Amino acid sequence: MTDQFVFTPLDEIEKIYNELKVTFASGKSRPIPYRRYQLIQLAYMLKDNIKLFEDTLAADLGRPQLEARMLDIDPSLVEIKSTLSSFEKWAKQESAPFSINFSAMRPVIRKEPKGVVLIISPFNYPLFLTIPLMASAIAAGNAVIIKPSENTPATTTLLANLAEKYLDTSLIRVIKGGVTETTKLLEYTWGHILYTGGGKIGKLIAAAGAKTLSPVSLELGGKSPVFIDSKCDLKMAAKRLLWGKAANAGQTCVAPDYVIVQQDFQDKFVEALQQSYREFYPDKASAPGQMSRLVSQQAFNRVNNLLKNTNGTIVIGGDTDEGTKYIGPTVVKDVKPEDCLMSEEIFGPILPIMPVNSIDEGLAYVNAHDHPLSVYVFSQDSAYKANIFDNTQSGSAMANETIIHPAVYGLPFGGTGPSGSGYHTGKYGFDMFTHLRSSLDSPGWLDMLLGFRYPPYTTAKIKAMGRFMNPSLPARPKGPPEEHLLLWPEA
Fold it and tell me: Which residues form the Aldehyde dehydrogenase domain (predicted)?
């Protein structure tokens, strides 16, 4: 299918980095027509080899064909096409907002590439969390080094081989490797570093970036809660939730991690999930082409141990096969806050249900823990949704849907606090890899207005500066707004 997975030698990494620095400094990556050419090449690199990528995703992750297309391949093509349609507009120089004081200086914002950028991508979506980001970096005019996951050797090897065939290797390179190779890469200074993965490694990436003063963006995941309104569209909620948890065997950074539901509605919701499970898997979930596998033996052992040690009640699934790294879609009810399933991001196809006595109790639990990458709500009640969204913090806030929002055109994708920093997809990815460089061109005659800035400083010049610089302010308020005092009288 692909060549053997061989790590990039450490001495070659330094040569590659230096070559890309020299090429970027030459200006080769900057012209808009060349950026467009490379983007089109990137698109055909994927489109010409869809079957090969389907095969490697199946080899690495046991990925069903439909999931390979829907979750990795097709949205990557859509992202490249969207970038192609808009990046010239994004790259145009902008005029600063009008100011009577400074308009004569013609202040503008130049959109410039940051340099050689590093993208460290994860195993769970080895295309969608790699190729669109390559597109953003190329569109912004950068040179790019990609370090895909060593846990998806077939896909990483194919990506590296095709990049050499389709793309300009003096500007775009794929590094194959693991911890040692990544550590070597982090010794260098980068225009920008984007890391997608877990928080533990994210801290190391951020610390390494700080040592070289390289800007860093992190997409880190977390335990994304799902609030279930007892009056929701029950069938829809059960189907979308079970699919969002089972897709890619739960190995999705925005996967619904656990459910919060009122105690007296738990059993009814479980029945709806059981019905959806029967509809999804009329034979069995482990049947060929129906369910992805855990990426590695280590991942299987970790998730399987969580399943073995839970004190909740398994009401769906629970079937495993160590030999194939298979864990079936599993629902566990009556999970307590101190249960092992609540101790870490599950990153597997296990869905704990934590019953609560009130939604306020559920909100208190969520807010006592790290801000997640997503908060999900299933409800038809606007007030219910607003209550959840207004009283939580998360990277995204989604109603009546799961996991597809990173592919929704025009929405930023990113976390907040422990779930990450920075945004990408579409223009947000372009902006991440773009330096906004302030510029102006001040005419000589302006010294007739700004001559007060030159010594010797006098009282007359101070008065002239005041006439030019001091802004007028709105009237002084008599106190906080009345509507604010109704909610916070202590203000």
Answer: 12-437
Residue 228 and residue 215 share a domain: no
Sign of the CA dihedral running 328, 329, 332, 337: positive
Residue 23: predicted pLDDT: 98
pLDDT for 471: 80
Phi, psi of 262 (to 5 degrees): -65, 140
Q: Residues 96, 235: one domain? A: no
pLDDT of 347 reads 97
Please name which of 131, 132, 136, 89 lies closest in space to residue 117, comparing C-alpha atoms: 136
79 catalytic per annotation: no
Q: Residue 421: which of 168, 211, 195, 270 has the closest Cα?
A: 195
Q: Which two three-digit tokens encode residue 239?
A: 């189907």
Q: Quick one: 117 and 204 in the same domain? A: yes
Domain that holds residue 280: 224-409
Is the domain of 94 the same as that of 196? yes
Residue 417 counted as domain residue = no
Segments of the chain with pLDDT less than 70: 1-3, 491
* pLDDT per position as a tens digit, 73-123: 999 999 999 999 999 999 999 999 998 888 999 999 999 999 999 999 999
| pLDDT for the residue numbered 2 | 52
pLDDT of residue 225: 98
Of 253, 338, 401, 483, which one is the catalytic site residue?
A: 253
Q: Are residue 144 and residue 257 in the same domain, yes or no?
A: no
Q: Which of 219, 232, 344, 361 is catalytic?
A: 219
Residue 145 and residue 394: Cα distance in Å, rounded? 30
* Residue 93 belongs to a domain: yes
Q: What count of other Cβ atoms lies within 10 Å of the Cβ of residue 389?
A: 16
**Residue 67: active-site member:** no
